[in-house]
Design brief:
three-stranded antiparallel β-sheet, alpha+beta, 248 residues
Length: 248
Amino acid sequence: MGIQKPAWLDALYTQKFFVACSFHENAKKNEKNICCLDCCASICPHCLPSHRFHRLLQVRRYVYHDVVRMEDLQKLIDCSNVQPYTINSAKVVFIKKRPQNRQFKGSGNYCTSCDRCLQEPYIHCSLGCKVDYVLKHMKDLSPYLRTCNSLQLSPDFLFPQDMGDDEMTNETPNSTIVDSDEPMSSWSGSSGSENMMSMACTEIVRKKRSGLNYVCARSASNYKVSDEDMATSMISRRKGIPHRSPLC
């Protein structure tokens, strides 16, 4: 009796990709774009720590259909006679059938399963079309299957920016926010006048278009100005009283 579809092939054909991962609902970049061939499941990039030693196949999107790189798929199954397409200088193969209704089938090269017009010399428009064709006519898929013990993601796979080393090791990341029970208006080590100076500098920067061109120090603790000096500076930069010429 011939070998039917292997479990990983059936999962690649039936699993849903590019949907939100139910285990990482609140994480960014949580679309399922990876197929774990050992678990026969679709996973998202945040699931990788639990599958790091498994065979992983990246699934891509092309004209609203799921595709995989031919270079990766050839390690698992013979993809000859399946028409490839080019995405970012890499050849890809459609996973599922793409039926095309044709009332009048003229001369040309068409897919063996879904009657889609193809280029010469290809006779299958997708991996699913070839598998169905082989099982229907040869009853045995084993001559086309290849042994693959290791399959990693391609170098161009993009990991989410918020997925750091702490997440890869399943550890809770350390907080980068200073923990304090005090309100933000009363910072430790800063006097009230320094806080007022910092707020004044911020207000001056916002009013730069009004002609106030003050330069604030980087740190309020290193730049202390008394209220008297600040008032004198403000007065000295006011416009003088205009003097009109006497009437003749």
